[in-house]
Amino acid sequence: MGPKICIIGAGFSGMAAAIQIRKQLGLTDFVMFDENEDVGGTWLVNKYPGCACDVASHLYSFSFEPNTDWSQQYSSQPEILRYLQKVAKKHDLYRNIKFNHKVNKLTWEENISKWRVVVYNKRSKMESEVIFDVIISGIGSLRIPNIPDEFATFKGTRMHSAEWDTSVKLEGKSVAIVGSGASAVQIIPSIAKKVERLVVYQRHPAWVVPRMQFKIPEFLKWSFESLPGVRGLYRSYIFLNHEFVYPAFKQGSLFQKIGKILSEFFVNHQLGHNPELMEKVKPNYEFGCKRITPSNIYYPALALPHVEVVRREITKVKENSIVTEDGKEEKVDVLILATGFNVQDFFFPLEIKVKNGVDLMQLWKKEGPAAYKGICCSAAPNLFHLLGPNSSLGHNSVVFLLECQVDYVVQIIRELMEREASVVCVKESVEGNYMAQLLKAMEGTVWASGCGSWYTDHRGVVTALNPYCLSSCWLQLRKFNSNDYNFH
């Protein structure tokens, strides 16, 4: 009889955890809670026009569940969601998932060495409490839309990219979009030709590079399916290509300089005929400090005659217009906020009370997050964060890292079971040494160069990204050292 496990979230993280604890440990007594109506996580919720992944699909997928039928190199949101639904059905996960159930609070009960979980049923509108031995959090960081207060005064149609209203018709409308990150780069080309006028407000334009998109031919799909090793070789090729560009994220490196030159050549190639616009979309921070976004159609969309790029600061938002610092007022029918997410809120609004009743969110806000290998916190026994602090990647597939983390968690739970222990907790000294090494490694990266990205917290410390290449992460997570933990 193994531990009773609670998995929070039914996206990539939660699904991977559920599949592996059943497959590797033979455990079936686990429950998955998800506040949505189906699996998919961010790929279920985000439905904005042009929504897609900027990592090639043959790498942005589970290694243990290859899909030989991806339609194109970079898949769209609907295709990724169908893939996840297919995986969930194949592994019979739906019977373990309670949808429309939101986990509101976790409390570590020291007297019984278990977690008390408060769950809200969105259908019945009732709360209930359940006791679990182990918690695996797979809630992800790109969940809570960042909606600046200044836009609350707008009375027209307003929507965040993560809360897209598919009933809104944009044809013939004057539309404003605020933001310059990945979602904006995808939305703008998808709506530009539909609207009457599009005003793009950008404070910090993205570094944009070519996107090598293409439809995967049928003969290649056939070879992936029929010829042993071909699909694996192709996946490895994509992986190594991404690893090869990792040096470009080292400050002052030759690779970074080359990347900047190539990106500048790309914008000149697409917008050289429009020097005024080219100057407007020129980034004012180090290449790679914020997420580099691939697109072949973004710059041409900005160059359309009815599209205007505004770099001026927004000083006032009225009921149906936006005013910039030069006093210019723009009438707007629809306001689209591509303003990202509150990544630095970590697992909020979930409340986690750890040892001695300490609020983990408040602790991390005050002292900065501390999680050994992005997974374990010394203040929180039997709690594992998947893609926790310093786990996101700026250069490669986070799904690969996720699988490595899941395998590591499986090793911890296996050790817990073999010892017949009830509690496992990383040692505080081990956690401290790891965080010091991680912060030291981050110093030489471009992510720490200070561009005000969502990777950093209020102290200017990078808390979202891992500073290492993915091969190094794999080596770090490959083996579990029981001496790093206290068991009892």
Short description:
The protein is of the alpha/beta class. Helix content is 30%, strand content 19%. It is globular.
Report on the architecture of this protein.
The protein is α/β, with parallel strands linked by helices and 488 residues long. The chain is 30% helix and 19% strand. The protein has 13 helices and 22 strands. The protein has helices at residues 12-25, 42-45, 77-90, 182-191, 218-226, 230-244, 254-271, 275-280, 298-302, 360-367, 398-418, 428-442, 470-478; strands spanning 5-8, 30-34, 97-99, 101-109, 114-121, 126-132, 134-137, 157-160, 174-178, 197-201, 208-209, 293-294, 307-310, 314-317, 321-324, 329-331, 334-337, 351-353, 376-377, 380-385, 424-426, 485-487. Strands 3-2-1-7-20-19 form a six-stranded mixed β-sheet, with helices on one face. The chain has a five-stranded parallel β-sheet with strand order 8-17-9-10-13, with no helix packed on it. The chain has a four-stranded mixed β-sheet with strand order 6-5-4-18, with no helix packed on it. Strand 14 (314-317) and strand 15 form a beta hairpin. Helix 1 (12-25) runs parallel beside helix 11 (398-418) and helix 11 packs parallel to helix 13. It starts with a strand and ends with a strand. The relative contact order is 0.14.
**Proportion in helices:** 25-40%
| Rg, Å, rounded | 23 Å
Beta-strand percent range:
15-25%
Unreliable stretches: none
Mean of residue pLDDT values: 96
Number of strands: 22
- Terminus-to-terminus distance: 17 Å
| Structural class by helix and strand composition | alpha/beta
